[in-house]
């Protein structure tokens, strides 16, 4: 029946199996089950010989906590076309040198994957096997066979179980398919990497329980049309979530960017509105260029646009600039760009954003040898930020001689400490 006789709604009827012998599920569970035998913490034996599998990228190994752990389940999510399948095929090729690897694709045919493997140089690996399947039952059985040390599934949203009649990608299919796969991985001691789709808002498609089930959640960020791509861990049961791996796409696949600061500043022209900021990607210090453009508005309502920076935070900083300094920005369009396609979540970007806006509005510029970092409060004060020593060390490596930064707690002569935003603009904008 498609229509409910009681409420008159369509497609609301749900099939439910009648409990056998007249007992409810709760009544049956109350009379079944057995007493568990617990262990003490001292009696639990930990295997010391478990060796992680290196991915071939030291930065990606650091994000994973030292490599891919046997029996661990990793979920990698990112925008379509950003390079998830490319990176995982490269990882599979590297691990396939010493271990048997299975690449299971539910999205692409064997010939499509073969073409990519030829481009990446992964087609000669004898221990790299491929299957095209959307059956979670079949893939779980293959994992339980114990023939593979690493299984890559592209993607979890394409899998389905025979017992469930809903379409692939629905909540019930994703939840149950991932449960079956994870249980098989733990039984066989095989590492599994799941590729996950994302929604328009950028969150992982499917139920939130998918992120809870897996051991590691990796987020693949960046611009799919160019620029740097960053892999960071959102969740990691085996290591830190403060690390980040920075990649760049080439014809032969993704490569780690060895010196991202130099690459980001290579084409910089020191004009008004351009500021070099010392930021952190995980625990790695980076120097990035912040660009600002300030124009008189052609309409009654000024436009604020930010690329790589939070728009709400930008509006707050503009309000602080107007209130705590003599800048009038109420009739100006303001555009902010973080060069290289990076997305800044660092509070230390506040001072660099404000100085870039003030520089563009006044037509004045900073010296070539100055880097900037610091958090700004609503009173216009410059607040201290963490890991200032790492930021300064990175700036020194690239030839910078001064840093405009919070003055509190700083003893390095490299730092020109400032206490409030107004004084920073007066002293350093020429």
Describe the structure.
This protein is an alpha/beta fold and 430 residues long. It folds into 2 domains: 58-258, Rossmann fold; 262-428, Ribosomal Protein S5, domain 2. It has 12 helices and 18 strands. It has helices at 25-31, 58-64, 84-95, 110-120, 136-144, 171-188, 209-213, 260-265, 311-324, 349-362, 388-397, 421-428, and strands at 73-78, 101-105, 128-132, 150-154, 191-196, 216-222, 229-236, 244-250, 253-256, 274-281, 284-296, 304-307, 332-338, 370-372, 375-376, 382-383, 402-406, 415-418. The strands form 3 sheets. It has a 9-stranded mixed beta sheet. It has a 7-stranded mixed beta sheet with strand order 12-13-11-10-14-17-18. The protein has a two-stranded antiparallel sheet with strand order 15-16. α5 runs parallel beside α6 (171-188) and α9 packs across α10. It is globular, with a radius of gyration of 27 Å. The chain starts with 24 loop residues before the first helix and ends with a helix. The mean pLDDT is 88.
How would you summarize what this structure contains?
The chain is α/β, with parallel strands linked by helices. Helix content is 28%, strand content 23%.
Proportion in β-strands: 15-25%
What is the CATH fold-level name of the largest domain? Rossmann fold
Output the strand order for the largest sheet.
3-2-4-5-1-6-7-8-9
Q: Would you tell me the overall average pLDDT?
A: 88
Number of DSSP strand runs: 18
Highest CATH level, the class of the largest domain: Alpha Beta
Overall geometry comes to globular
Helix content: 25-40%
Write the CATH architecture name of the largest domain.
3-Layer(aba) Sandwich
Work out the helix count.
12
C-alpha end-to-end distance: 77 Å
Low-confidence stretches: none
At the fourth level of CATH, the homologous superfamily of the largest domain is P-loop containing nucleotide triphosphate hydrolases
Counting structural domains, the number is 2
